TrEMBL record:
Signal peptide: 1-25
Keyword Signal: yes
UniProtKB keywords: ANK repeat, Repeat, Signal
Signal keyword on record: yes
Residue ranges of ANK repeats: 73-102, 215-247
Protein name as annotated: Ankyrin repeat domain-containing protein
InterPro entries: Ank_repeat_dom-contain_49, Ankyrin_rpt, Ankyrin_rpt-contain_sf
UniProt xrefs under Pfam families: Ank_2 (PF12796)
Amino acid sequence: MYHLSALVCSILLSLLLTVPCAATADTVTDVDDKALKRQLEEYIRKEQTQKVKQLIETHQFDVNYRNQPWEPTLLFYASSRGNRELVDFLLEKGAEVNVISRYGMPIQWAADNCQLELIRLFLEVGYDPKRESAAYWQAKYTQGDTLTEKWIFDRLRMIERENIPFDLRNKAINELFDPSGNLLLSTAATCNGGDRTLVKEILAKGYPVDLIDKRGATALHYSIQAHNKAMVKLLIAKGADVNLPISNPEWARMLRQSDFDNNLTPLLIVAKELSELKQNEAGEASLYQKELSAKEITQARKELYAIAKLLLKNGADAEARTHQRKLSALDVAKQLGDTTFEKILKR
């Protein structure tokens, strides 16, 4: 009996020494790149940076791997989290900053979360901000470039072949597949009060100052809504169109929200902001409006008056009217009883 038990124990011990242990939830063994990427994405979401690094090093994983040519790479996820340590590591491993997916680009994922530090880093290491513009890709397509991002050119070819009435002027490339994500210039102009130095850096690299996002708005529109006179002044000096309205008819129809197709020019945006301040002052702020103190309202009005003067000085059309109610900025000023705004408009 003793010898039999010893034999069984010997066999069991042998099996334990020769059969690999089952993989735990934190262990990845003998997996393909697709599965490995999914595991890495999960670690990034959980902020498990060291595990990401270890897994990439252990498997010598290609940080630019994508199962499909339009999928995001690991740099997208790290950028979204604002994980500077991991972004630096991925860049050291050769991560491509100019990569584009049907969900935008890594820098746009950083912009979505107000990661100005990462935006500046990507510009420093070679990101070309012109790639956000549909015109950039259309020019490459027209010139016969078939070597990069074939799937984007397929979309452009379809628009051309089917004669689809799609105006790409001043549009972001995202409009061709997934119209989401904040644009680079608009984020730099408004996030955390705006970063004028960063705005200048972006524009110096050839970025279109009037590039329109999914809401039909530009950096100038957002800067006015943020009551940021200094940023408005900078954008106008860099060539921003002072008469370009917010415009996205598709969104207006889909969301039944007229502001996306109501001819809201920069000056009419000022009028709208002043109207909302009046509501705020009366304690009638809408659900999406922040309740302001009397001091904050006074300061906001002061900024908006200064913005109106800037716009008019640079050629803003004071006669422009909304589509819905046919109101000019002067009409709004009279409705509000805002004599200061009236005087500015009548000069």
